[in-house]
Amino acid sequence: MDTNKRAGEAGPVPFRSSRFFCVGGKWYFTTREGFDSGPFASRDRAEVGLRRFLHVISLLPEDIH
Q: 62 — alpha (psi -120 to 50), left (phi > 0) or beta?
């Protein structure tokens, strides 16, 4: 579990679980919005997929996300 505070957070650190999970030997990641993406062949590939997803999100105009 990540015990670091994010920018702008005050008070106790909220509970956080891993964004990655494995089902039937395939790996997935989940977003805060509840979107699950996968399957990926390995956790490493799922981590790359998440980085790509976050990069694409960062390119969207601010009023969309």
A: alpha
